[in-house]
């Protein structure tokens, strides 16, 4: 990890929220970026982006029920995650932030902006945050593929878990030491029964909330902050069927005047944030949001 990185633990309902931040003391007038990971991930989704924002403070938590925050109790709903993030900003004495959310983290970002509008300058939603229709009678966990399957698996050694990730289609051409660090951090327990850190109950609760139900669609459409939506053209297993259909994204872009949609070339649902080329595009969106905020009178 880089020298400007440091871990944190912040008090929230039921215990402590863990995570890490880059550049805890940035230069004067630097913006703060709050980066929110996906449904089975951790704050180590974000080193690629942090590298590309050298003048900004980047704060990234492990969400409730994931990684080092997996001892926090239920409920694990999206609103609870948003409340945790607001408490985290309080603890770190951050008044406002540009909020970047990947996958489920983008849904959390929307709820944060809805519930705490005075804390959010703008949103960058990365392959998430727009309602995902759910087929009736189909187990929602199936949409996560191997990401959900691994939560019930155990691994005899750290190397066995790294091999699982090396074989993942999303990283076939993008395996790097940084991805290996992400995988190592995800391990919990002790050999020979190591297991992924995300709680299946937390993942199962959150995946049910991604279809826009329970007030989410109304929260999204009621936002007035600038929103950039970045779409990955390939899916969770690097398949050509993406998480978001481009026609559906175009429909949301047409109906929400404050939302601008972008296509990110040559990435899948993971590498849109966990690769250099994906992080380049996400960082560009963040920079543009910051510049626009500086140009707009308050």
From TrEMBL:
Signal peptide from the UniProt entry: none
The keyword Hydrolase belongs to this UniProt entry's keyword annotation: yes
Keywords on record: Hydrolase
Pfam families for this protein: Abhydrolase_1
Membrane-spanning intervals of the chain: none
GO molecular function per UniProt: hydrolase activity
GO CC aspect terms: membrane
Domain AB hydrolase-1, chain residue ranges per copy: 32-161
Protein name: Alpha/beta fold hydrolase
Annotated source species: Cryobacterium luteum
């Amino acid at each position: 990890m880089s020298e400007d990185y440091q871990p944190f633990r912040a008090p929230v309902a039921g215990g402590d929220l863990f995570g890490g931040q880059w550049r805890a003391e940035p230069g004067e007038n630097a913006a703060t970026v709050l980066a929110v990971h996906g449904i089975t991930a951790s704050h180590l989704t974000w080193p690629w982006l942090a590298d590309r924002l050298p003048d900004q403070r980047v704060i990234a938590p492990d969400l409730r029920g994931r990684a080092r925050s997996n001892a926090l109790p239920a409920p694990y709903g999206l609103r609870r995650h948003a409340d945790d993030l607001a408490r985290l900003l309080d603890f770190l004495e951050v008044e406002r932030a540009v909020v970047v959310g990947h996958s489920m983290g983008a849904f959390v970002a929307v709820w944060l902006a809805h519930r705490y509008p005075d804390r959010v300058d703008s949103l960058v939603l990365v392959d998430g945050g727009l309602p995902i229709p759910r087929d009736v009678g189909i187990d929602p966990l199936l949409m996560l593929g191997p990401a959900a399957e691994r939560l019930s698996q155990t691994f005899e050694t750290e190397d066995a878990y790294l091999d699982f990730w090396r074989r993942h289609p999303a990283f076939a051409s993008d395996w790097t030491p940084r991805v290996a660090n992400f995988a190592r951090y995800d391990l919990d327990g002790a050999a020979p029964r190591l297991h992924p850190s995300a709680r299946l109950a937390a993942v199962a609760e959150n995946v049910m909330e991604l279809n826009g139900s329970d007030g989410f669609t109304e929260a999204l459409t009621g936002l007035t902050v600038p929103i950039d939506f970045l779409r990955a053209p390939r899916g969770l297993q690097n398949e050509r069927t993406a998480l978001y259909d481009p026609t559906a994204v175009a429909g949301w872009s047409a109906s929400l005047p404050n939302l601008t949609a972008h296509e990110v070339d040559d990435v899948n649902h993971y590498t849109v944030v966990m690769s250099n080329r994906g992080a380049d595009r996400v960082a560009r969106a963040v920079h543009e949001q910051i510049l626009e905020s500086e140009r707009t009178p308050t």
